[in-house]
Design a protein that fits this description.
Arc Repressor Mutant, subunit A; Jelly Rolls; five-stranded antiparallel β-sheet; alpha+beta; 2 domains
């Protein structure tokens, strides 16, 4: 299931019970099961497949999935690109009996908040626990904002295709072929919907993914560049200077210091 969700959810009743993480493991899988609680899965890397209600949903980096209580589902990691995720177990009025909902965390807000929530998971301070509940409610608010009307199907499907092939060498012909449209019509329609060309969007998605890895991991820049489909460190540096007005190394140092000062 893609975006769009109607629910009588009251976010003010949401109570985070626990958080956890799944580290990359090509053999990981879970047989069909269900829970008495709700679960939010945030994919930080790799990919996974979920089978539910006779359907199959593929989730990749940046996707967030909600499993309402009672939903029977089976999960399996992508063997070539093992999934890494954070998950949150919670209770909330107005969700039981609903379908699986998948959205894409386009702005990276959910992933950042979920990292903070998980890192503070063992804190015993009453104040921190209050802050965790408030932040989790903010996560749900962002999730349901993204689950609204969203982008036109052509744009949403193209961006999903790009995210699934970030490490590949994509050209315009690939995107038009995936959309099932002629190249000229694809470019015109995409530009009318987004205000930029498909390949400009590809560059922005690559830069956004590289930025996530720079801020959220300790991977060396020379390893991040090919993962994001940016070729090498020098190509990534040129793109960062254009979009973020500083090279990747400086970007990591600057924002790393700012995040530490906010803690």
């Amino acid at each position: 299931m893609g975006r769009r969700m109607k629910t009588s959810l009251d976010i003010g009743t949401a109570r985070l019970l626990s958080t956890g993480q799944l580290l990359p493991d090509a053999r990981w899988h879970m047989k069909a099961h269900s829970h008495s609680f709700h679960e939010l899965i945030v994919v930080l890397g790799g990919g996974m497949t979920v089978e539910h209600a006779g359907r199959r949903t593929v989730a990749v980096t940046g996707d967030v999935m909600l499993y309402p209580a009672g939903l029977v589902h089976a999960e399996r990691s992508d063997p070539k690109h093992p999934v890494e995720s954070r998950f949150m177990v919670f209770r909330c009025d107005g969700l039981a009996g609903g379908p699986l909902v998948r959205v894409t965390d386009e702005r990276g807000r959910i992933r950042q908040m979920v990292r903070w929530l998980h890192d503070d998971g063992h804190a015993t301070s009453a104040l921190i626990q209050v802050e965790r509940q408030a932040m989790f409610q903010a996560v749900l608010a962002e999730f349901f904002h993204e689950a609204g009307p969203g982008d036109p199907p052509l744009v949403a499907n193209t961006r999903r295709y790009v995210r699934e092939h970030l490490g590949d060498s994509l050209v315009l012909d690939d995107l038009a072929r995936a959309a099932g449209l002629s190249k000229s019509y694809f470019v015109r329609t995409y530009g009318a919907a987004t205000g930029r060309t498909p390949m400009q969007d590809v560059r922005a998605l690559r830069a956004g993914f590289a930025r996530e890895l720079i801020l959220g991991t300790n991977l060396p820049l020379k390893e991040i560049a090919p993962r994001a489909g940016l070729g090498n460190e020098y190509s990534m540096s040129r793109l960062f200077r254009q979009l973020f007005h500083m090279p990747p190394g400086q970007y990591r140092r600057f924002h790393g210091r700012r995040q530490r000062s906010e803690q």
